[in-house]
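idk why but the lab printer keeps eating my pages so im just putting this in chat instead. protein + iron/sulfur cluster:
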Amino acid sequence: MKKYILPITLLLIFETIAVTLWLALDNIFYLFNFSYIGISIALGVFLFIKGYSYARRITQLLVGLYMLIYLGVISNENMQLEGFWYYLFTGVFEAATIHFVVAKIFGPLIFGRGWCGYACWTAMVLDFLPFKRVVTHERKNIGWIRYVMFIASLIFVLSLFLFKVDRIEKIMLWSFIIGNILYYTAGIILAFLFKDNRAFCKYICPITVFLKPMSYFALFRIKCDKSKCISCGRCKKVCPMDVDVTDNSRSRKNGTECILCFECVKNCPKNAI
Ligand code: SF4
Ligand code: SF4
Ligand code: SF4
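predcted complex ->
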């Protein structure tokens, strides 16, 4: 029973969010939305514990497709960074604002970059590419691009308001569609260029401007039991985000990049992680 504490805890956290938002905002959508996400995540963790190899990918598809197709395309909610700015400036604390607050700003204080491993619809596609394990752990010096992307999206939405552009809602829908096409294209090109499925996450994604500092303080963290570790280095080799798993400090190399994929856990020959 002890081993099922994590999926049960995750389910309870999401159910608490679901019920709180449902009652606070008097909108039953939030009960459905966060219950669905919580069940999908808990199911993935449960299947992982049961030893099912594709557990994480199942959750990623369940949540990613729901957000991209149902919320994004069918319900016209721009859940990208632009959507967050848009709802923030209109003063609407719903949809994208709540999504960002829960998944990308305050949620990472609890579950770190879990969003990136289990829910992101961009990574959901990139993880199908052939470069699951990075060839070189040397980082390119282009991480600054994420800040340029972050500021560009802010300026884009701000200008729509400053210049009183008509039909901003329509522009938001198109920016969601075009933005996603550009993200997928850039992500696929970078993956092949650097032979790394997650190159987009490491250098381009503007969401990491929120995710990285918040996940530094994450409650759920991958830790190494030094008494069992034989320093074989396998965990670092399989980590798609180049995290130095054997260092337990918060300032470990690429520590804010861990996506909780559990590849290091699965591959450690001494069950030290
Ligand atoms: S870094 Fe960005 S693109 Fe990558 S998984 Fe996280 S949110 Fe998605
Ligand atoms: S894979 Fe396990 S034993 Fe090997 S270095 Fe990592 S933690 Fe230590
Ligand atoms: S392999 Fe381990 S350290 Fe690396 S991202 Fe996955 S869970 Fe985190």
